[in-house]
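ok so for the tutorial part 2 we go from a plain amino acid sequence to predicted structure tokens. step 1 is just haveing the sequence, like this:
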Amino acid sequence: MNERLSHEVFVKKAIVSLIKEGFKGIHTVYSGFNEAFKKYFGGENPVEVTNRLAQEGKIVIRPVKGGVMLYLPEESPGGRNADEALKIMGLK
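step 2 — the prediction. this is what the tokens look like for a chain of 92 residues:
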């Protein structure tokens, strides 16, 4: 019997597998990720899970038109995270 993937493994596998050529991440709606997640995990909410994984630093989320893009941390587009910004501002 096949063992279920964890949320983290599923999301990272989706990012790597569903990526379109020339892109570094996947759009949660247009890639089919949200529906695949719900089907695989019996209706669980992909937004809650991906937000938690982002807070843990396991993926990066960037808002875009019509949803969000999911990236592996090492593939995320430029831009500072909150910790970097606070450090540069001398507040951390």
